[in-house]
Amino acid sequence: MAFFSTALAVGVPALAPERPVTWPKRTRHKLANGLEVVLAEAHSIPKFHGELVFRSGNAAALHRGPGLAELTASVVRTGTSKRASRQIEEDLRRIGADLSSSAGADSSAIAFAGLAEFSEQLLSAVNELARNASFPEPEFERERRQKLEEVKLERTSPGFLASERLRKVLFGAHPYGTVSASEAQVAAYKRDDLVQTYREFYTPENALLVMVGDFEPSAMLVNIEKVFGAWQGGKPQVPQPAAAANPRGRRVYLVDVPGAVQAQILVGCHAITRKHPDWLKLGLTNSLYGGAFNSRLVMNIREDKGYTYSPRSGVHPMRQGGYFSISAAVRNEVVAASLTEMFYEMDKLRALAVPASEFADAQNYVSGMFSMGLATQSGLLSQLGTVALNELPDDYLETYRDKVRAMTPDDLQATARKYFDSANMQIVVVGDRRQTEEQARLFGDAEIYDAQGNSLR
Asked: pLDDT for 29-88, tens place per residue?
């Protein structure tokens, strides 16, 4: 205790000057078949990380079924026309490599990492999965059964139920309004649904290959041409999506979970994509409001009020739009009090200038987190992929910290007024209706649903 008191008396040392970043050499290239390639040298360890990304995900496959791109990515990994799943695993172990496949709303990807000396063998495995996945019937059935269990489990998660309802409210009939399939939809999927999705999405003209690691770019390009050069396929034809919903005025959506001992709150409104000129300003504003551990929201409803352990706000960019959200899991009896403080901090940020010292802390946090994200091969890979997929300026990473430093408290206040749309926030509360409905209705007219998404009176 004496040591702790002494440490407090001494105070926290001042931050050291921000270190300059030595940016790795980067190479961009496009193969004749349309495959885009981004390479970056990073020689700290004799490894490399990569990702083959396809610019189509669950949203583009929704006309066939919810979550279909995700299920397709799961089964892609389980076999090819040349090798069964077990053989793929053994071959990867032999060269000390890792490989995985996944999909989200706007993209599907094959991620990989391994020793630089075995790069050609690993790239050949990636190429094989991208071009010759065989979708074995037993593997498809296993993945489908697993997905069925996941869908059932989702219905017991307050966080999922809140996210599902908010996305439906904000985006409506647009593909972003659907976050998961129902049990009946998963049960109805056929192997051919996955094969058709694979053939349309997994093509070179729809793909981006990003690699970071211990290699010489010109030599790696020779390998890439050798491995992927004969691959053929155009861009997929995707139906024009429905327009997103545009809810006006505050409204409450209560998902009834009888007997729940706490409530999940999720509040949100439309926001912007990463390509928008205000993206960096919104990121800084969110950090100060609720996106960092020392943010105003955390200091208020966690540290001061003790309503919740982990309040959080975030900006969620997607290709055709985005949204801002505020979340917290709270005790049933403080739902109204928590919402009051969320809106208080939001409106305060919109109305009053941020003190210079607090603004500087937010700048340091955002700039520091950005720098930390570049410290590893996988972190740099993620940043380079973000730049390429979102068609951001070539100097986006190099100028990021300078642009953050150039912002002012006035920029932050203007951004809060523009994007923290307090008057039109949509409010989702997942919990026991008997204990939360009266509190929730203080903030707007309410619609009531059960955990399956059915409307209740």
From this structure: 999 999 999 999 999 899 999 999 999 999 999 999 999 999 999 999 999 999 999 999
How far apart CA 60 and CA 56 sit, in angstroms, is 6
For 27-39, write each residue's pLDDT tens digit: 999 999 999 999 9
Higher pLDDT, 252 or 22: 252
Rounded-to-integer distance, Cα 34 and Cα 231, Å: 10
CA–CA dist 371, 404 (Å, integer): 12
φ and ψ at residue 157, rounded to 5 degrees: -100, 115
Alpha-carbon gap, residue 265 to 342, rounded angstroms = 10
Q: Distance of CA 160 to CAs 237, 319, 444, 452, Å? A: 31, 22, 22, 11
Question: Rounded CA gap, 107 and 61, in Å?
Answer: 11
What tokens does 17 get? 């000057």
For residues 4 and 318, give the distance between their C-alpha atoms in angstroms, rounded to a whole number: 45
Q: Based on DSSP, count helices (H) and strands (E) in the chain, helices before strands.
A: 17, 13
Tokens at 413, concatenated: 């206040």
* CA nearest to 59, candidates 267, 266, 295, 240: 240
Q: In whole angstroms, what is the distance from residue 103 CA to residue 210 CA?
A: 16
Tell me how far apart the alpha carbons of residues 54 and 35 are, in angstroms, rounded to a whole number. 10
N- to C-terminal Cα separation, the chain: 57
Q: Would you call 152 exposed, middle or buried from its count of C-beta atoms within 10 A (0-12, 13-18, 19+)?
A: exposed
